[in-house]
Amino acid sequence: MARTAPPESGVEPPPGLNLELLVHGVGGTTPEEMLGDPRIECVTGDATAAVYRRTDDVDAEARPEDYRDKPVPEAYSWSNLTSGNGARALWLILLPFMVANLAHWMRPAAHGRHAAVRLHGVLVRLVALSLTVLLVAAACEVALDLVAWQCAGSAACADERSWLGFMAQSPSGEGGWWSQPGRRLALAAVVPAVLNVLLWWLSHRTWAAYESQRPLRTEITEYDAEARERPALCLPGFWYGKRLVARLRAAHTAAGFLTVAAALTAATTRYDRKPGGSPGLDAVGWLLEVLVVACAVWVVYVVCRRGRKESEPDDALDKITVRALPGLTVAVLVLAVAHAAWSRPEWISAGGELPGDETFGVLAVGQGVLVAALGVIGLLLHRRQPVPRTVLKGLGAPAVAMLACALGGVMSGGVTQRVGDWLDGSGTPGAGDGLIEGPPILLTWQSSAIPVLLGAVLVMLSFLLVRLGRRSRELTDDVERGYPGSLPDPSRSRRIASVVARAALTDSAPWTVGAVALITLLLGAAGVLGTWLTREVPGRAADGMPGFVDGFADTAQALGSWLIGFAFVLLVAWGRRAYRDPSARRTIGILWDVGTFWPRAAHPFAPPCYAERAVPDLAWRMATWTEQTGGRLVISGHSQGSVLAAAAVWHLDPGTRGQIALLTYGSPLERLYGRWFPAYFGPRQLHDLHHQVDCWRNLWRLTDPIGGPVDHAGGGDVPGVDRGPLLDPLEYGRTVRHPLPAPILGHSEYQADPLFDEERDRLLARLRTGEPAPGCAARTPEAQAPAGPGALPRQSDGLESSGDRMPPGQSESGKSST
Questions:
Q1: Interatomic CA distance for residues 775 and 718, integer angstroms
Q2: pLDDT per position as a tens digit, 17-45
Q3: Which residues cross the membrane (predicted)?
């Protein structure tokens, strides 16, 4: 693949040259596939993201006469932003952070409710901070408690592991230099400290590579002067949050170091304060506790202080916080290590968990309180300004935040349970009948809840499957009516109806997520109460109860320990495969395509926001090409590419938007983003986008589980945009034009439908001639009619297409039957 320089800026093509800028969706469609030609050249960009043209079209600006009746096609490829090199495999440990960051953007619409919006942001940032502490605390639990304290302090456990021999301590306290408990803990503290440095490094490295792109500076004059009156994605600083990310990165890094320092200090000070302890060491311990608390207050203040500033690029750094806070906490950690390593010949770690190990219980309670507070804020905001189709009536953010906490618990609990089982031999986890005491009791309660949660999920899935089968049978007759004149084939009809019914399940996902989050919250509360009331693992706590309860508790505990360990092993294996196999990495990249669209506003250690690179890329390309050539442009986005296209169009100045037409297909703009992120893609914002571009057309199918209409409810928020539902499959049975069975395309291959070319040509004609067309600023009464085929009213354009038949699942009244 060759690389060529962009067209010379001095070339002045005559008016009429049009550009079609293609943006792919999730999964990383290659530029060769997008352009339909293996011979392509890079016009502008780098190996991470670039714009490509066919080799024959590279000098199109110098040959405008060859493109009077067709556009110049370009492809923007951004897949390497999420599935590039092998380091992306490390992002798997950041999954809970990514989910927590999503919760920040899911708040309900709240125009004018600035105090509530700020409080919502503070609560989500605190949840995100608790996840960082949880991950580092899990590393402390493994390295400090299970290995250095329990196993190295047990002669039976240390004898079976020769690599622990230098730290082993006999029951009488004899051993080498490293055998003293404080020194073992000081040495083991290297593990969580290195993990914390790794998280900082990943965040810093990805910021430099992804999110440091300068936004396109625009003067927005058609909105009120106050930034709050504009759609948020149009603000010049929305895709550039350098100051917030740097400040949060410093705070979370400091929190990680403080967690390690607190674990060391809690163990050593408890020993030093016993009768006969050293007054000097006790005084240093008090100093350490004061420093840890003071730094923790500073961390919380930094996290709560302020959120994003989007009215302009926020590139001024808080140098004192960014530089001094992590450095001070490193100094505190070094002092804690030195304090722990000081000689205490009489100290013996005989049995039990590490002193001061109540972190997990405090974190679980804190996360539950924060999620509950988020729920109250969400309900109040939604009730004050309800937006149709908002997921869970404003409870989307707390539900997703709860799932982030659950993921963090599974990952941290999986590590500790797996290591605990490995060190404990044949003992029961947490029961104290093996080589070591095992992980904290709360983690055993939490792992025991996993089988219960999975059982509830299976019940919900069974209900959905029954509903799916019933809906498929109901749609079978609609499918046959959608293809008049075709010979009925019950098997074919059932297959199409089943695809339509499965695609409609996407609209049921919010309530499933809400139910799982609620069950998780209740099970977490039960685990905390069970731990505090019984101080026993579930199997022991149920002794003496009825046989059914006792047996269920023992089974849940054993199965939960196995499941959480298996989940951890699966995560490690998945990451290892992704590191070595580009195809597996691309599959995992689909997860990042969906989850990392939003900037890191809550958690700085989340995977990087690719849109902070992709949106400026697209905006710069559209703005410079239209300014350089005076031509018109259609930006054509599929799936997630349609979201990037919409965000890039919002990023342009008003004059450039007037030269842009937007074509979206398989688009989740309303179906997913409008419902889950109503404050940013709600009806008001989509209505604004519709009136800012010259034209906008959206294609959708009933068989598509992701894409959908923009004006879903038909309420007139963005009329004239949608064309659909499109016919899928294009032919019911074998025909002269299609002698072989036509495939059911679902979310893919929208270009295979003749209506795609028809709508694109209409947009290009509109740009060239300025004549009214559906989805454009100037509309005729005919253009206001729905644009779908079949039973939907035909547009009075005289064009013949496959729209003579009713789409599958379309009732005779013209309304979607799903």
A1: 8
A2: 888 999 998 776 888 999 988 999 999 98
A3: 89-110, 122-144, 185-202, 250-271, 283-304, 324-342, 362-382, 394-415, 448-466, 511-535, 555-575
